[in-house]
Design goal:
Elements lengths: L1 H20 L3 E4 L2 E4 L3 E3 H4 E4 L3 H7 L2 E4 L6 E5 H8 L9 E4 L2 E6 L1 E4 L1 H14 L8 E8 L4 E4 L3 E7 L9 E8 L2 E21 L14 E7 L17 E2 L14 E2 L9 E8 L2 E9 L8 E6 L5 E8 L2 E4 L2
Parallel strand pairs: 1-7, 2-8, 18-22
Antiparallel strand pairs: 1-4, 3-5, 6-8, 9-11, 10-14, 12-13, 13-14, 14-15, 16-17, 18-19, 19-20, 20-21, 21-22
Length: about 325
């Protein structure tokens, strides 16, 4: 038995150095690359032996990462001083470099890509824009932006809600769903389309014909509600005087009156089931839905009536 006891004692002594060799070691790198906003110990050091204890130690936060595409230098002494009192770092053998240069990965957003994003936005919204050749000219684009690594998404915000007339487009950026800054592309939005223009001087009350109104290609980026289809306004009237070459807008055109000044009309008045009617004389032109002055022939009084249709007006009582 003494012989076997001696053998066991020798084996135990031989195993002691192996237990000591299993002590946790942290070997700092001279250079490291990170992707996220914070640096953990596993980013800047090799931790051995592998296992749950090494994983827990590697997750300890060290400091904030540099800005995307930038570097910062860490002093190992400061890192050890900040971590050595943590339970996970007890009885650790610190080794390796005395300083660490940490680079942060970045996703570049080039000037060309910014312009492509705005061009794609205009294309996607073509259905709500006038039918025109649309382009952004005199473009001023920011310098290249460096974004954090991750899935980049964006939202384009024009300077005018309706897009037409916008002079800038702000690109609100996000990485992995988190805001990552904005950039603004400036320029002049040109929208060249065939629109209706006055071929001659159009005076208030003139009827629109194929001779006094003609289509013409123009930049309509600064024009609200231009008119495009001649057939839709033929026979209607001009609301106010328009100079030759002027792009016609919705406000320039009105329906012709259905009642003319001096025309005899039928005046209707209704209250509940009671319906009364009499004759009147229109004192001015009236379009459908407008209120005009009518002389009641029976009472010789002037009353205000709503135009309901050709030769027909109504009044409330």
């Amino acid at each position: 038995m003494n012989y076997f006891a001696s053998i066991l004692t020798v084996c135990w002594l031989l195993l002691l150095p192996q237990v000591a060799a299993a002590q946790m070691t942290v070997h700092f790198k001279a250079k490291a690359v990170v992707a996220g906003p914070k640096i953990v110990l596993a980013d800047i050091a090799v931790i051995q032996p592998a296992g749950h204890a090494a994983e827990a130690l590697g997750k300890l936060p060290v400091t904030a990462s540099p800005a995307p595409g930038k570097s910062k230098e860490l002093y190992v002494g400061a890192v050890i001083g900040a971590l050595q009192n943590r339970p996970e770092a007890a009885d650790v053998d610190w080794q390796g470099s005395q300083t660490i240069v940490v680079d942060r990965m970045a996703v570049p957003l080039t000037k060309e890509r910014m312009q492509e994003i705005v061009a794609a936005f205009l294309q996607e919204n073509a259905a709500v824009l006038p039918k025109a050749d649309i382009r952004l000219t005199s473009v001023q684009t920011p310098e290249e932006m460096l974004l954090p690594a991750g899935a980049v998404t964006w939202k384009v915000i024009p300077s005018r809600p309706g897009i037409v007339g916008s002079t800038s487009f702000t690109i609100a950026l996000a990485v992995d769903g988190k805001p990552a800054g904005n950039c603004t592309v400036r320029g002049r939005l040109e929208m060249v389309a065939e629109v209706l223009t006055a071929a001659t001087t159009l005076r208030k009350g003139d009827t629109v014909t194929g001779e006094n109104v003609v289509p013409q290609r123009q930049n309509i980026s600064g024009i609200d509600n231009p008119l495009f289809i001649l057939e839709e306004i033929l026979g209607k009237q001009v609301a106010r005087t328009v100079a030759p070459g002027t792009v016609l807008k919705a406000e320039h055109i009105v329906l012709p009156p259905v009642i003319k000044e001096g025309e005899m009309v039928k005046i209707s008045a209704q209250k509940g089931p009671l319906l009364l009617s009499t004759s009147g004389l229109a004192k001015n032109d009236g379009r459908l839905g407008e209120v005009i002055t009518v002389k009641n022939i029976a009472s010789n009084k002037m009353i205000h009536c709503r135009v309901d249709g050709p030769g027909m007006v109504s009044v409330e009582f």
